[in-house]
TrEMBL record:
Predominant location category: cytoplasm
Family: Belongs to the DnaJ family.
Entry remark concerning the domains of this protein: The J domain is necessary and sufficient to stimulate DnaK ATPase activity. Zinc center 1 plays an important role in the autonomous, DnaK-independent chaperone activity of DnaJ. Zinc center 2 is essential for interaction with DnaK and for DnaJ activity.
Positions of CR-type zinc fingers: 164-242
Cofactors: Zn(2+)
Cofactor stoichiometry and binding remark: Binds 2 Zn(2+) ions per monomer.
Protein role: Participates actively in the response to hyperosmotic and heat shock by preventing the aggregation of stress-denatured proteins and by disaggregating proteins, also in an autonomous, DnaK-independent fashion. Unfolded proteins bind initially to DnaJ; upon interaction with the DnaJ-bound protein, DnaK hydrolyzes its bound ATP, resulting in the formation of a stable complex. GrpE releases ADP from DnaK; ATP binding to DnaK triggers the release of the substrate protein, thus completing the reaction cycle.
BP GO annotations: DNA replication; protein refolding; response to heat
Pfam families tied to this protein: DnaJ, DnaJ_C, DnaJ_CXXCXGXG
Protein name (record): Chaperone protein DnaJ
Molecular functions (GO terms): ATP binding; heat shock protein binding; unfolded protein binding; zinc ion binding
CR-type domain boundaries: 164-242
Amino acid sequence: MAPQREWLENDYYKDLGVAQDASADEIKKAYRKLARELHPDANPGDTAAEERFKRVSEANSILSDPDKRKEYDETRQMFAGGRFRGGGNGFGGQTPGSGGYPGGFSTGGGDFNVEDLFGNDGGGLGDLFGGLFNRGQRAGATRPRRGNDLETETTLPFRAAALGTTTPITLTSPAPCTNCHGSGAKPGTSPRVCPTCNGAGVISRNQGAFGFSEPCPDCQGTGSKVDDPCPVCDGNGVTVRTRTINVRIPAGVEDGQRIRLAGQGEAGLRGAPSGDLYVLVHVTRDKIFTRSGDDLKVELPVSFSELVLGATVSVPTLEGSVGVKIPPNTSDGRTLRVRGRGIPKRSGTKGDLLVTLKVAVPPTLDEAATEALRKYQAAERASGFEPRSGWGGER
């Protein structure tokens, strides 16, 4: 069955429980809520919940993709009502693109179903005009229906996300049957070419002045027939099972980014290509590091004497430590830049390490340190140093 026909039959907005003008965030939240409630792991043995889970996943795969959603909305709007009007001649007195299109199509021989406009490969109106001039001739075989895209989530520590890692993800979803390897046929046998459509998956028929292509009723548009179905998947080539996938997370991935795994989504029927899997990455906070783009940021506690006299201190990075030189008479809060010690980039280079210096005040001082500090204070005043000079304006 062509995707456009399914779009006419299924109300994806209703499946997700959202309005037609719902935002992308509203669609995402609705899908995640329903996916958690209907997931097979949460409803073992509940076939109704499993079927609903598949419908919700399919709805999300269309509505979460801006291009597919636009096409879906336009298709349903174009063919709202389910039938074209009949009783006229040609195009009902209207030319394609005028005010009467598409509601004014007529064959001169009565109404016809909107489904007649769609072939198994989603040819749409192209099949209508192709049938008109070719009288039902069709070139090429039908394309197998691709499986739906899936989405899942994973949470990573900050440093693992910054450096890249491989993490296992467990999914329960439709996947190729391991008994028949997705063919739908019992092991030791193979599907045969459908004799009705000769493997094309579609047949042609004439209605008045038009020729139409429609899915072959004997093979349901697959182009093949299974005489001895696989007992595990009942001939579909797909079963719902739990599988573990090792996902390679590229270095530098940020919180909220999605990673696409081609062909790891829902399996297509009878060996058709699988959809894609999208992994939404959440990154936890680190006790030391934060990031700004590709730069790694750290606040380094230092003593007053290190700022005044200067020092070389050890600063942690994502990979070991690095020595950072503090110039004499450095102000509290100054940020020092260490080149090439930040977040890895796609180009193979790295961002920078930004070290912000923060004075750490000792909680207590012994008598000797206190006496030394009082002497320093006196010497500081004798030198004429006033820390608030010019601060706050003249009074």
